[in-house]
UniProtKB/TrEMBL annotation, chain A:
Residues 1-20 are annotated as: Disordered. GO terms for cellular component: eukaryotic translation initiation factor 4F complex. GO terms for biological process: regulation of translation; response to virus. One of its GO terms (molecular function) is RNA 7-methylguanosine cap binding. Gene3D superfamilies: RNA Cap, Translation Initiation Factor Eif4e. This is eIF-4F 25 kDa subunit. Belongs to the eukaryotic initiation factor 4E family. InterPro entries: TIF_eIF4e-like, TIF_eIF_4E, TIF_eIF_4E_CS. Pfam families: IF4E. Keywords: Disulfide bond, Initiation factor, Protein biosynthesis, RNA-binding, Translation regulation. The keyword Transmembrane helix does not apply.
Amino acid sequence: MAEEASEAATSEGQSQTTTQHPLENSWTFWFDNGSNKSKQAEWGSTIRPIYTFSTVEEFWSLYNNIHHPSKFAVGADFYCFKDKIEPKWEDPVCANGGKWTANFPRGKSDTAWLYTLLAMIGEQFDHGDAICGAVVNVRGRQEKISLWTKNASNESAQISIGKQWKEFLDYQESIGFIVHDDAKRHDRGAKNRYTT
Amino acid sequence: QHESENFTKKYSKDFLLKFQAQYCDLPEGFSIAPNVANVLLFLNANKGHNDRDSY
């Protein structure tokens, strides 16, 4: 039996059984506060892990206390990645991967961010094993949510993930997939490897 | 409905959302630097759901 039952006391002093719902994967929230960045700081040096969770209950305990993207300062990046995977190109699991990105006007990504998290931790993607995690980037005029995947050359898996993600978000616009290697070589000039 | 010891633990969005209102306190042992907490967390984190509804 996968479920773990535990006893918890209510505020009335009574005891009730609460059921913990374990997730398939453990996930870590990471945060990069834009205001701490400086020109001298190497990219990625200001990212810090916040907490690793492994149950549905822990997820909500965190989510309900953490600001949503619309309340973050411009420049902030908030990540949710599988445990043991650092949200960096250099991470060996991410190194050959890429990312799908969906754009939203400033203050309009909160629901999409939540639905992205729920789809990931609930293992709703047919190719969930190919997913590293997700990040929301808060910028001056827009918020971007990106879904990082492991093996960019596996086209069918990337297309499947991209299509399902759009369905989960009810996102009507086209989204693009950029390979990390292309982004490293061409920065903002990198072209989409796939679109859907 | 959603899980078995032999299969991937899958939870639908609607199933997960049922639990949202039940877990409003930070996990025990949660600790981050104050300067990060100030920008990351609601000001009344740790105070519980009723307090958050009071303003």
